[in-house]
Amino acid sequence: MKIPVHHAVVLGCGASGAAAALLLRREGAGVTVVDRVRPGAERCAELEAAGVQVMPSESELPGGAFDLCVVSPGVPVNSPWISAARARGIPVLAELELGWSRRGAGIKTIAVTGSNGKSCAVKWIAESLAASGLRVAIAGNYGPPVCQVVLEQPDLDWLVLEVSSFQLETVRDFRAEVGILLNLAPNHLDRHGDFATYRQAKARLFARTLPDDVCMVHEACAREVCGEAGGAGRWFTFGGAGDFVYE
Fold this sequence. Notes:
- The protein is of the alpha/beta class.
- It has helices at residues 15-26, 41-49, 80-87, 95-101, 118-131, 146-152, 165-168, 189-192, 195-203, 222-229, and strands spanning 7-11, 30-35, 53-56, 68-71, 92-94, 108-113, 136-140, 158-162, 178-181, 214-218, 234-238, 245-246.
- The longest helix is centred in the middle third of the chain and has 14 residues, at 118-131.
């Protein structure tokens, strides 16, 4: 669902934050970008030329009637910026989901997550689809930000996304017609705190699935993830002695 935006604050001015800001400005929204440091001259000039306000801030969220807070992957959910946005009732959304919500009509999504092997899987899937004559773009944690791709390539058949636990922390309605969890091992615990929280972040990939969506999960972590994810998709496991459809 495309979320209408009049004035947004974007947290982080790396590639993802800049792409989100430029997409929203293209739609006519007012945009303020907040980062701990002012971005490099080239990126700052590009954003300011597009009418984006860039503000360095360690922890304060700027005042204003924002109707959306867009989060770059490098900003953790316990950030003072996110806490302030939620305290003010501003919806918080990952850059990944903002871009996905602006994809062209008819574009389907394959999303791949896991502790290891994501980039290889995404590249292999995209090349396989392209070899069959479909229009495909890679985006997300591997490749350009999703917001950039949907701006530059509106006429695709498939978006193939590498999705990290950092991006999944702040998705709300994001769903992929095909979601794949390759594996799970303790990772990024400095950010997530413990393995259970990390696993729950990964499980959010499947939280909004519909009955015709496909959820593919490594058998070793299938029962925990299926139990935590919610969603209505069809579950399939792989990588075990006897792969099965999970009911």
